[in-house]
Amino acid sequence: MNRLIDAAITHARTVLTTLVLLLISGTISYVNVPKEAEPDVNIPIVYVQMEHEGISPEDAERLLIRPMEQEVRGIEGVKEIRSSGYLGGASVTLEFDAGFDADAAMDDVREKVELAKPDLPADTDEPTVNEVNFSLFPVVLVTLSGELPERTLLGVARDLQDRIESLPSVLEVKIAGERDELLEVLINPVKIESYGLTAEVAVQSISRSNLLVAAGSQDSGKGRFSLKVPGLLETAADVMALPIKTDGDAAVRLADISDTRRTFKDPDSFARVNGRSALVLEVTKRTGENIIDTIENVRTIVADERRDWPQALRQTINVDFAQDKSKKIRIMLSDLQNNVISAVLLVMIVVIAALGLRTAGLVGVAIPGSFLTGILVLSSLGLTINMVVLFALILAVGMLVDGAIVVTEFADRKMTEGEHRRIAYGLAAKRMAWPIIASTATTLAAFLPLVFWPGVVGEFMKFLPLTLLATLSASLVMALIFVPTLGAFIGAPGGTADPEAAKMLAGSDDHDPEESGGYTGIYVHFLKMALLRPGRVLMAAVMLLIGVQGTYALFGKGVEFFPDIEPDFAKIQVRARGNLSVYEMDSLMAEVEKRLLTVAASGEITNAYLRTGREKNSQESADIIGVINVEFADWQLRRSADEILADFENSTRDLNGIFIDRRKQEAGPPVGKPVQVQLSSRFPELLAPAVVKVLDGMEQIGDLINIEDSRPLPGIDWEMQVNRIQASKFNADIDMIGRAVQLVSTGIKLGGYRPNDVDDEVDIRARYPEAYRTISQLDQLRVNTLNGTVPISNFVERVAKPTVGTIRRVDTRRVMTIKADVVEGVLANDKVHELEEWMKDAGLDDRVTFTFRGEDEEQRKAKEFLGKAFVVALFIMAIILVTQFNSFYSALLILSAVIMSTIGVFIGLLVTGQPFGIIMGGIGVIALAGI
């Protein structure tokens, strides 16, 4: 090490040129490195989506989920399999062990899906395999709203979608609120009967007339000719002209018995922004791209496109941007820059007062030098700037100058003894090299175990130790190489001895430190008194340690997972029960929206994005009829989010039949409601009674609010029970009856065609007009049999059955989940422990097992890992200290300071009235150990 320091000072110009290069390169990296909101986390989850229009949840479980589960359960590394069967499809979600290879996992799942496909029903759509990644969430929403025809607004949205997706940094743009187009054939049952036809005959005629015929080619010996049989329908007029029946020269065309129109599929949801009907473009950027530049480019494209719109469109369509994630990054970057500048100024003020202007300048160079070198390292490793990295950089600013101060202070001492600056800085660097290396190594040792943090939380937080390792390592190089070299080159000249100052700084035998005066004298006097009574001081410290921790255990605020933050966004979930149509849901949502917009009129809410409709494959409660995503104004210009949302809740208390559930933005990875209990059993009939019992227990425990569960909603489904023997007498079968029933529901898919004005294929569907699509019409349906057309009521009975809802499974067992929030001021951790103790004695059926999920599950994992990381860090620091001092006593003496330092932690929590955060508090204690 000494030779390296001597070589650096000898070749000072080379070293200083390198320093300039590092500063310039670091600055360029800081400007150009991609900025993201959330870290690019590989969440160990892959899910398979299977759609089968009209399939019931029970059939989805039997025909879709079970075959798929049988195949994917053999994939290596799968930790848990979660499945959902719902009306119209199913999904199978695979959670892998931490540290999984996302690409390999996707390949394995696709391979198993291919093996399972032959076991799925023939009409099931192609299964899709998808991964979950934080970077794939939208970074900004572009909302288009206004009172104009849906087709016009959709056309504008699709044009914008194409333009935005042309950006290299944009991965995809989805249009929320978009409905698929449809060519609808409305068959009139009265006209059909008047022509002596049945709907079945008409449907079969259309299906057989829209086929791709590969006619091949013919070789006559004198030439080769391709043969063509145009069989595909290309326009709506082609569909209308199809012959259904002929009688001599007369023909009955489809136009004679039906009305055909170009329309949209029946709505299952509605979208509005700030009270206006809207389409929302959800923009997702590519992994590793700069979020600030991406959103800026999106805004530019939207502005350019809007200028090209006709005047009428510009006046009618309102364009807004919501949930812009670049705003938070800009604020954090500003905070980071302010912290760096503040740190440099504060350090320089202190060092100027103690050591002089030149020395302060040397120390001041160490902060931006270490900071920018660390950024350069992160950029070289392919890491991006995200909220966790920015937090780590802000945390690191205060730890970058210790080594530089020690070296410059020791050099200053040597110059007071008469040494020249070149010699003084060389001696200082060499004398303090191992203490500084050991000090930095112990700090790095504290953070090193955090790199191996498993799970989603670990993937989210690992950027913190990586950033600190890079910047603190850079500070070590700054303190031992660049600062001494710079000091030897431009530092105070030195060479003039000051005997009195030298004697005082050296602490010689003929100098009493108490004569130093000032703070040093006060400290020395206090230290002498303590050294004269070592037993009492040690006993007092131990008693204080025990007393503070005991006091916190009795009177502290307990433990939390992540700290509660002042959010920029919130989600308002509206719940209502019953067999509600989408229009009834929207009517209720409109009332809630009206109250919210009244609260928003004060300017404290900038955007309210409403979505009406129940999500098919959601893990949320089945009674959620809509969601409003709220964006708040800047926190400095408004009241707290809790106060705003409380005002809104109070304004909705007179609305009967609905329940408001608010979800604030979470710090860290989202885990949902803090209290989540999962009940599972191989006997599905046991789950609902167990849920009722647990709900009663929650009421007894108290302080739990917004309770929801995954039981099916009260309601009915109509089951068409076919008497197969009776049906066979009429030569009727299940396929015939099913197609007849489809005519009064979503219709029968006859095929598709591709109009010139759209890119995707448009379905052709046949069904009865709306007046004939009623419950009573089910009993009057007629099918064509050997005995002519007969009502299906001759062999079909319509029976009301309880609604099944979404069927959920975990590791092939049926599950139901109960979720709850806690009242303000109560810690979820305390309520989870109370509920856990209650459930052990609740008398649940032995065939029903319960597990606490969500925040409690993640908290336990994090607590377990951080405890191990703390112990590992202590052992690594002990090895470093024993190596330095060659003494177990010295190492243990220093490590005892780690335990004693927690006194300040708990006193701070008691004074501020804050709970101990498992994540942030745990990281803070580990960082404290290193410091």
List keywords for this structure.
32 strands; Multidrug efflux transporter AcrB transmembrane fold; single chain; Alpha-Beta Plaits; 49% helix; alpha+beta
Write a structural description:
It is a single chain. This protein is an alpha+beta fold. Among the domains are: 206 residues, Multidrug efflux transporter AcrB transmembrane fold (Up-down Bundle), CATH 1.20.1640; 98 residues, Multidrug efflux transporter AcrB pore domain (Alpha-Beta Plaits, 2-Layer Sandwich); 97 residues, Multidrug efflux transporter AcrB pore domain like (Alpha-Beta Plaits); 100 residues, 2-Layer Sandwich (Alpha-Beta Plaits). Helices cover 49% and strands 21% of the residues. It is built from 31 helices and 32 strands. The strands form eight sheets. Strands 1, 2, 3, 4, 21, 22, 29, 30 and 31 form a nine-stranded antiparallel β-sheet that branches. Strand 24 and strand 25 form a beta hairpin. It is elongated. The model has no long low-confidence stretch (mean pLDDT 83).
